[in-house]
Design goal:
The chain is an alpha+beta fold and about 150 residues long. It contains 3 helices and 8 strands, in the order βαβββαβαβββ. The strands form 2 sheets. It has a 4-stranded antiparallel beta sheet with strand order 1-2-3-4, with helices on both faces. Strands 5, 6, 7 and 8 form a 4-stranded antiparallel beta sheet that branches. The longest helix is centred in the N-terminal third of the chain and has 18 residues, at about 15-30. The chain is globular and about 40 Å long.
Amino acid sequence: MNDMISIYKPDELSMDLFYSILKLRADVFIAESRSCYPDIDGRDLDAGTVHLVVAEDGKVLSTVRIMDIDSCAPRIGRVATTAEARGLAGELMQRAVDLCAPDAQIQLSAQTQLEGWYGKFGFQRSGEDHDDDGIMHLPMIRAGQGIPA
């Protein structure tokens, strides 16, 4: 599946692809989760952001966003996958982790029910649960190699 994953910097996203990414995220985060969520936060087009995308026949099946990818504390987020392709999320998430520097302390905010799933990729809880637009989340971090958790 790794050969199905495409990586885009903001200036490499076509309008159609960017629209499809935002549409998938709206379907998952707003419609499916029944949350009035401000997904478009102005960070998708930042210079340090990359988007990982799995698409088939022009349809985005899964996407992940990494912000501040070249920093010592990148942030993975906006992990979204269509219901029929949920099995893709794990490989896409692993690829996102692998793209970050080995010594980076990767951060994310996880829905509380996904704490164990993110734990499979080395993430550990780093704070208390909090309500994020009606959905409980928790902060998580993945310590870089040679850095104590």
